[in-house]
Amino acid sequence: MKLLKAHPILTIPNAYLIDSPAPSNLSYIWNFGSLLGTCLVLQIITGVTLAFHYVSSVDLAFSSVEHLTRDVTNGWLIRFLHANGAAFFFIFVYLHIGKAIYYGSYRSPRVLLWSIGVVIFLVMIVTAFLGYVLPFHQMSYWAGAVITNLLSALPWIGKDLVEFSDLEKILIYSSVLPTIGTVNSKALHRATLRTENDKRDALNISYSFLSMLMGLIDGDGYLSITKTPAGYIRIQLIISLDMRELDLIKYIHSVLKVGRVDRFPKINTVKLVISRTDLQIIVFPLILHHNLYFLTDTRRAQFDKVMFILLNGIKKYSELPIVIPVYNKLPETAKGYTKLPFFLNWIVGFTMTLDNPLKLKSTKNMLSKI
Q1: Residue among 361, 364, 365, 359 nearest 239 (CA)
Q2: How many of the other CB atoms lie within 10 Å of CB of 171?
Q3: pLDDT (tens digit per residue) in 139-195
Q4: Which CATH architecture has domain 185-369?
Q5: Does 185-369 match 24-136 at the fold level?
Q6: How far is CA 60 from the centre of its chain?
Q7: Tens digits of per-residue pLDDT, 79-137?
Q8: Looking at residue 177, what is its pLDDT?
Q9: Which CATH class is domain 24-136?
Q10: Are 363 and 351 in contact (CB under 8 A)?
Q11: β-strands 269-275, 221-227: how paired?
Q12: Per-domain residue ranges for the chain?
């Protein structure tokens, strides 16, 4: 005991933890402050650990959390410690506030102390909300929607803020998909409807699905650029598979919500056909938004040609130039391909239907080139 009081360093914890004067009515409810400190330390440690694996992206946030939970050693434990630690944090805060109100700790001379506590409590609420939306799953989305609608409680301007058409884009969406080129006048009305409805849903399509779709189009699809009887250009994206892959085509159609499914029983083929308008409004803007591109020479050349037509407003087939500029350059080395963020999902889509001998030959050529 003499050492605790004489040592220059040990005297500090001794004065606060052992010899600190305390009121005679001290009880266990005075422990909530220290419990809150314990919860804070737990949240910081687990939060920093989770941040090592978290990807701050609308497209990859949910996947990164699932990877952390399922693949990282004891990742599930760290995540649930963090989630339940936040819940206990607020439980102890409410008990701590209740104790302070019961004993009148908000009265003079502790008004400043109480005010600081209120500020800390408000900061906790904001921090908890931001943390809750980080996984970007359905509960996160609707939590964000509910909290942003709390702005309607503001007098005079609250309701207008919530109903303001651009507010939702600012708070929820990182960007609005731009239309590529000028939409044909006959399809203008339908394009406007898609701008209001389908583009919002399209932004929620996962990055992994779109990466897989790029590989599937590279292997089993093509961009059709044909000449109409009147000499105009017709553009379509077509994914052609065996009739046994009908469920796959239907699934892609249900996710993209564009195009039509055509069946050809006589040749045992099913096709997903996406029109020029849908390519301009949904598909190509999504590809550019996620910085995706085709990896085979044929499909890349078709994409470059279509983009050149759309961006330059070319209508007549005879107006097409011989040389088309390249929009995306492919990696020069095999390591460059493997470092592409979408490469693994692209491989899944590209090798999805290898029962076709021609496809298998194309796959072998592609992989040997890579």
Answers
A1: 359
A2: 12
A3: 887 887 788 788 778 888 777 766 654 434 433 333 456 778 777 655 554 544 455
A4: Roll (3.10)
A5: no
A6: 5
A7: 999 999 999 999 999 999 999 999 888 998 889 999 999 999 999 998 998 898 888 88
A8: 67
A9: mainly alpha
A10: yes
A11: unpaired
A12: 24-136, 185-369
pLDDT tens-digit map of 300-343: 999 999 998 888 888 888 888 888 888 777 788 888 888 888 88
Three-class HEC string of the chain: CHHHHHCCCCHHHHHHHCCCCCCCCCCHHHHHHHHHHHHHHHHHHHHHHHHCCCCCCCCCHHHHHHHHHHCCCCHHHHHHHHHHHHHHHHHHHHHHHHHHHHCCCCCCCCHHHHHHHHHHHHHHHHHHHHHHHCCCCHHHHHHHHHHHHHHHHCCCCHHHHHHCCCHHHHHCCCCCCCCCCCCCHHHHHHHHHHHHCHHHHHCCCCHHHHHHHHHHHHHHEEEEEEECCCCEEEEEEEEEEEHHHHHHHHHHHHHHCCCEEEEEHHHCEEEEEEEHHHHHHHHHHHHHHCCCCCCCHHHHHHHHHHHHHHHHCCCEHHHCCCCCCCCCCCCCCHHHHHCCCCHHHHHHHHCCCCCCHHHHHHHHHHHHHC
For residues 338 and 333, give the distance between their C-alpha atoms in angstroms, rounded to a whole number: 9
